[in-house]
Amino acid sequence: MVEEFILVLSTLAFGQILLSLPLLVSRANQIPAYWPLAFFLLGMGVIALDSSVSYFLPSYYSIYIAFIFPAWMALSPSLWLYVQGLTSETPWQLSQIPLLTYLPLLFGVSMTCLLLLLPSEAREGLFVDQVAGSQSIDSGLAEFAAISMFLLMIGWAIQSSYYVAKMVKRLVIYRKKLNDQFANHEQRSLRWFNWLLLIIVISWGLSFVNLVTTLATEYAIFDYRVGASLVLILVWTICYCGLKQKPGYEGHYLSETSDSVLEAESNSNESIKYQNSALDQFQAERIKDKLNRVMKEQLLYLKPSLTLQQLSQQLAISPNYISQTLNETMETSFFDYVNFWRIECAKPKILDNKKTVLDIAYEVGFNARSSFYKAFKKETGMTPSEFRKSSSSELNS
Fold it and tell me: Which one of 8, 192, 271, 285 is at 20 to 30 Å from 226 when CA atoms are compared?
């Protein structure tokens, strides 16, 4: 019963991959970041076949396992390239992929070739029936293959940890830069990727431990149903969200090559970031006054799609100077600065209590109720209803 349950979950995951891959490939010419995502799903598809091959084609299972190593080695580099493509500040192309990124894949392919050179009895002894195949494993080539597999799995764990750390680091920097350039970025922030990374860490961790313990003792520490469930959630999440997700800077790419800045900025602070700027304190104060005046008089914050570039064009001031003024002189980001004006505009409307909170949120420039609530509480320390009640209490006292 347990085996059938795992088979159903794996089949659902594989089916979702089969449905999504053609869609990704068809859209990859417009959005090149879909290519590494398709490669990631292809690797996940190979892994998802485990239960099906074991159940329907047991005599070919040891051959199938030989091909699973390249699939594992391709996962984390592909996901990293997908994140890189989505967060690039300039149009990302496949030509930007460093040759070393997929170098570990060659080790996986080498492992496949080595395992296929083994006699079938030796492969059976390694992957299926260690007791029956123990004599075959004692051969020099089989022992070398077993040691190589163990080292490759350790290398895969190190590789995966390295790329997960790189993805987290890049996403943190990316979201900070979004705050400096966009007044609304709900569809750009990649918040869903946080949950995806958590699922990946847990599922890959369980799979790694189970693979090691199965090869060593023939018994898995963790229930494979948990791993199969996590893989299904992972596949469905990345297929559903990935097919909808567009690059964060699409339509607002910078004209200069600045993607390297996204990488380097993790090692810098604001003072280093603006160390070559010619902006002095007097100029910064003038820009500050001009910013406040244009917001108050022209109500630019009411425009939901307002960006730093648009504000720069309106003021005829360099976007770098505006960003520096906001960050250093006003100690805020473009995102928080615009939201401050929006919340100030929303306060009297909340107290007036003639419109719904959602209507007010849209009127003052927000795209979603949730982002309005979050910004309102950040500025006032209260929800809109709490703010209304608090103001009513003060008037009645």
Answer: 192
Q: How far is CA 38 from the centre of its chain?
A: 15
Phi, psi of 307 (to 5 degrees): -125, 165
Burial readout 88-105 (b: 16 or more C-beta within 10 A, e: otherwise): bbbebeeeebeeebbebb
Domain boundaries, the chain: 2-244, 275-396
Q: Give pLDDT tens digits for 234-249.
A: 999 999 999 999 999 9
pTM, entire model: 0.86
What CATH number matches the domain at 2-244, 1.20.1070, 3.40.462, 2.60.40, 1.10.1760?
1.20.1070
CB neighbour list of residue 386: distance below 8 Å, 6 or more residues apart: none
Same fold, 2-244 and 275-396: no
Own/partner pairs for 190-196, CB < 8 Å, 24+ apart?
190/83, 190/86, 190/87, 190/245, 190/248, 192/237, 192/241, 192/245, 193/83, 193/167, 193/241, 195/237, 196/234, 196/237, 196/238, 196/241
Q: 1 by DSSP, 3-state: which? A: coil
pLDDT in tens, 110-132: 999 999 998 888 887 777 654 44
The alpha carbon dihedral of 19, 22, 26, 31 has a sign of positive
| Architecture (CATH level 2) of domain 275-396 | Orthogonal Bundle (1.10)
